[in-house]
Specification:
Blueprint: E1 6-7, E2 10-11, H1 12-26, H2 38-49, H3 57-60, E3 64-65, E4 75-86, E5 92-102, E6 107-108, H4 110-121, E7 124-125, H5 127-142, E8 146-155, H6 156-159, E9 170-177, H7 178-181, H8 183-193
Parallel strand pairs: 4-7
Antiparallel strand pairs: 1-2, 3-6, 4-5, 5-8, 8-9
Helix pairs in contact: 1-2, 4-5
Length: about 200
């Protein structure tokens, strides 16, 4: 990458200088040997951590399969690991997403569901918002009879600062269609993923 590379209207050299400013603000010297390459490394890491801004998650779901021999039962992909960053403190959120949907004539390759999760996770996020975004994307593109999304997350903004509480995870859910309207469908989904019941 060159210093002239531009992402979202910002030159790479500007981004690196911003990191140097933060290093100085933290009390260190960005010109000392151990920190000389840190701005380049941080900017490169940001390009990876926040690559979701350059991705259209809906595009992953456009290619579907209709030859499924009449299959119309629940499809679940659980334990999709994700890494995100909270938009309030820019601290990591690490956890798992569980996705389920009831197809209405067409299904999508399961790797595409994981890619949708990544597309939203690799942005600055609030877990509640990310949960809703994933569910709404699947509902809007696949038009299934219903969608259920459950997200578990450990928030480093809570474990490494502030209240300093470790071993705490946050669980959020978004149910659409029959997952919201039919208690039996919702219960079946939750039973399959068994969040918090020691399955893992």
């Amino acid at each position: 990458m060159s210093d002239d590379e531009i992402r979202h209207g910002v030159r790479r050299a500007q981004a690196e200088e911003a990191v140097r400013t933060l290093l100085r603000w933290a009390g260190d010297d960005p010109t000392r040997e151990g920190l000389l390459e840190t701005p380049k490394r941080v900017v490169k890491a940001y390009a990876d951590w926040f690559s979701g801004y350059a991705i259209d998650p809906e595009a992953y779901l456009k290619r579907t399969f209709e030859e499924v021999a009449g299959y119309d039962e629940m499809i679940i992909l659980r334990d999709i690991e994700y890494e995100s960053h909270c938009e309030h403190h820019m601290a990591p959120i690490i956890g798992k997403v569980h996705v389920g949907y009831l197809p209405d004539g067409k299904v999508v390759g399961i790797s595409k569901l994981a890619r949708v999760v990544d597309a939203f996770a690799r942005r600055f996020q609030v877990q509640e918002k990310m949960t809703a975004q994933i569910a709404r994307c699947i509902q809007d593109v696949l038009q299934p009879r219903g969608v259920g999304v459950v997200v578990e997350g450990a928030h480093e903004c809570m474990t490494t600062r502030g209240v300093h509480k470790r071993g705490v995870s946050m669980v959020t859910s978004k149910m659409l269609g029959c997952f919201r309207e039919d208690a039996r469908t919702r219960a079946e989904f939750l039973r399959f993923i068994e969040v918090g019941n020691g399955r893992r």
